[in-house]
Amino acid sequence: MRLYPGGPSHMHSSLSQEEGFERCAAALRRLIVEAVYASHGDSILLSGGLDTSIIAAVASTFNPILRAFTVILKDYPAPDLLYSKMISQKLGMKQEVIEASLDDVEESLSDVIRVLRSFDPMEIRNSVAIYLGLMKAKSDGFSRVLTGDAADELFAGYSFVNSLAKEEALAKLHHLWEVMHFSSISLASSLGIEALLPFLDRRVKEFATSEIPFEFLVRNSKEGAGVVFGKFILRKAFEEMLPPDIVWRKKTPIEFGSGTTILPQIYSNKIGASEFDDKKRMYLEKDQVRIRDKEQLHYYEIYRRIFGPPFFDSTRRTCPACHSNAADSANFCTTCGEYPI
């Protein structure tokens, strides 16, 4: 679909920038509404960030009994609790807050690592919160769980993209579009339920990657002079449906919002320096795996019990840290998280 026959450049030649922005925002809003409607979700993983809040606001107009699930780590700071309650109360949506203990996290690690075949600390910290939410949704009888995945990749939500000059940012965006993957899909499948990603709907993705000028994605906000916001057109497209605190909420990783960002410190305190050094040396010699820190060591030992040392084909590209095979286009290792490779 091409909203403007010549693409974004044609749009600029026939409309003022603001007229073009308004038309583009309206078209994007319509496509996202249609994608959410077509997904027929019965529940949602709700962080209270912009992306999940948009999905929740749209879905609640079709399904007034939509159930929201929010995961936080008990007894640790978790900003998602405040924001998710704000949006669920505004929408009149029943919300289940899963206050996960450290024991809950530990019990879930084997399943998460087995499904993802990874001991990348950032991936595990983010994914364990997703997995706990999906498990609760399943136990409560829900099977089609909406998520806000892919909005950051499609609409320049990451600071490492929107802080760059335009040409560099566009190159980063195009790379993200090629390599993006989402653990919610495989984690849900492992539980016998389905994760639904409306932002990955074919028409939404096509529109985002071919019809939206970069200047519509990254802008200074009128509400916050001098503050650069990614996903600007997405924020404005749904501004009237959401509280301002959510529309202009800055991007934070799942681990930060849920509180699992504390895990590096927790696992660091569980092992002494000399034991860590001994194990780090042993795994480098025996498995050719370079361990970066104590948290990664904890995940690697679980990974190793399940799979053994990473298998690799020496005729293909390998990660310098763990020797897992990596795609030619990859700039980080999905097995251990090494960056760059």
Would you give an account of this structure?
- The protein is of the alpha/beta class and 341 residues long.
- It folds into two domains: 8-261, HUPs (Rossmann fold, 3-Layer(aba) Sandwich); 271-341, no CATH class.
- The protein is built from 18 helices and seven strands.
- The chain has helices at residues 8-14, 17-39, 50-62, 80-91, 102-116, 121-139, 151-154, 159-162, 166-179, 183-190, 202-210, 214-217, 232-237, 244-247, 254-258, 263-268, 273-287, 294-307; strands spanning 43-45, 67-73, 94-100, 144-146, 194-196, 219-220, 228-229.
- The protein starts with 7 loop residues before the first helix and ends in a 34-residue tail after the last helix.
- The relative contact order is 0.15.
Descriptive key words:
single chain, alpha/beta, Rossmann fold, 5-stranded parallel beta sheet, disordered N terminus
Brief summary of the model shown:
By secondary structure, the chain is an alpha/beta fold.
Topology summary:
Elements: H1 8-14, H2 17-39, E1 43-45, H3 50-62, E2 67-73, H4 80-91, E3 94-100, H5 102-116, H6 121-139, E4 144-146, H7 151-154, H8 159-162, H9 166-179, H10 183-190, E5 194-196, H11 202-210, H12 214-217, E6 219-220, E7 228-229, H13 232-237, H14 244-247, H15 254-258, H16 263-268, H17 273-287, H18 294-307
Parallel strand pairs: 1-2, 1-4, 2-3, 4-5
Antiparallel strand pairs: 6-7
Helix pairs in contact: 2-3, 2-11, 3-4, 5-6, 5-18, 6-10
